[in-house]
Amino acid sequence: MSTIPERIKEFNSTRLPAYTAMKYQLMAEDPFRFFRGTCHLFYEDLCQAPAFPDSPLAWICGDLHLENFGTYKGNNRLIYFDLNDFDEALLAPAAWEVVRMVASIYVGCESLGISKKETEQAAGLFLGVYTKHLGIGKALYVEPETAHGIVRTFMDTICERKQKELIRQRSEEGKNGKLRIRIDRVRLFPIDKTLRKELSVHVNQWLQNSTVLKDRYTVLDACFRVAGTGSLGCRRYLFLVQNTNDPKKHLLIDMKEALPSSVQPWLSIPQPTWTSEAERVVAIQHRMQNINPALLSTTIFQGSPYVLKEMQPTADKIDFLQVRDRYKDIACVVEDMAFLTASAQLRSAGRQGAAIPDLLIEFGHNRHWQEPVLQYARTYAGVVKKDYQDYFTAYKAGFFS
């Protein structure tokens, strides 16, 4: 069998080398960052696990972990806190989503220096709240008016941020007096003139076909964007667009290449026939989220599928480093994440092969599968720690150069 470094290198072999190198560097930071960048290893190992408990089929985001919840502005312009990454989304056993999330609690808390006792409490809390809300059978959501604790404080702070602030941070005045994207070579990188022109033409056409933005916006500038961990190495662009009726108004639009789900190779469950990987991502996101991000849509550029959405000042995540010494705050966030996970599965139940709500409710009431899931997640955290050490050794030795 291939070594951990070989499995990682093979999985990322088709991605853009320069940005994949950045991914490798980030993955070397700690076991949790490594866990976030190796979703494919997790599911490859899970599908070979003996006697893992059965569960009803559900739509899952596929890469659920502590960093894949966050705030965003919905297409109704209100602020929400919800699951926010669907690159790996597909139809799979409901417990697969749960066990990855619980494993992330074990790995993430240890990386943050949180005690084993509090880590166990957080893992048990997530599973307990998830099963409770699944058993109730009602999908809920979080917005500023319904949030509580640290999530409420977080969302109230986010709501105060303005679009103009984001534009000011990400742009600067060019030689012609018009705004252009500020290239920092950390998150935003330049692209060659030909590609920039082709992208701008394409997005201008997309804007003209948009029912919301048609005849109102035009592209001023474009660049390459770096964000996240697992998706690094795929093509991702950022566009600065200007309101043609009011030149002082601008938007930033994110356009991300949609690659096949890394969960798919380890599943024998039939999936719908999507027109593209981007359609898969957006369709499942529509089903699982209560309200979708502004301008969420798909496009095909140079034969590759992409997901588009508005980049917003409200697209933020909880910084667990700031609350690692405050278990009550951690518990508050974990509780919200748990009922949001159950709600996403209930909201999308019964669609194209997913179990009906009654089966998910029954699964929520069933206690027999919960301890095996906790035990697997707990044990797998140790596997991640060992795999990280193998990876780190190979990385330092230049294997990924």
Automatic annotation (TrEMBL):
Full protein name: DUF2252 domain-containing protein
Entry-linked InterPro entries: DUF2252
PANTHER family, A to Z: DUF2252 DOMAIN-CONTAINING PROTEIN
Pfam families referenced in this protein's UniProt entry, alphabetically: DUF2252
Organism in which the protein naturally occurs: Puia dinghuensis
Highest taxon in the source lineage: Bacteria
